[in-house]
């Protein structure tokens, strides 16, 4: 393996390319310790030693992230990618935290639903979970996990927040509130059912 690139990421960290591919990120002192320099060969034993060190670092990073808050597999993968960890390290580090049950997308989705049901519309909850990388099959199962299928109270709370005590609205105001509710993930039929009583 030939070192084909060394690029500073921060003052202390450097991306190292081997044979034209991102291989790992090392600290400045580690570059010196392993005598890494452009166009120099990296021996297999050294490569293995470095990769073990980088994997250990990736595992610690994930554990640190998970002590602060729950995260999805996709969120952890994104964090590692942004920190320039190579694919094989990302795969192994995520497999490690999953093996201890620290990451479980289905449990995450269930807890998220329990926490936000009644505060966000069901459609909003699904959007947010989708943006966190929750797989489609789990999103489809969410419907069965719901405990509250009636969002009328939530819709009414949204309306009151928007109309600030008015009892009747003209068509322009109604349209504004309807657009607001739609952005909150409320179904069109539910929106107009709720707004009927406010029409002048």
Descriptive overview:
- The chain has 200 residues and is mainly alpha-helical.
- It has three domains: 3-99, Arc Repressor Mutant, subunit A (Orthogonal Bundle), CATH 1.10.10; 105-145, no CATH class; 152-198.
- 60% of the residues lie in helices and 10% in strands.
- The protein contains ten helices and three strands, in the order βββαααααααααα.
- The chain has helices at residues 28-33, 44-68, 73-82, 87-99, 105-116, 122-131, 136-145, 152-163, 171-183, 188-195, and strands at 3-8, 13-18, 21-27.
- The chain has a three-stranded antiparallel β-sheet with strand order 1-2-3.
- Strand 1 (3-8) and strand 2 (13-18) form a beta hairpin.
- The radius of gyration is 25 Å and the shape is elongated.
- The model has no long low-confidence stretch (mean pLDDT 87).
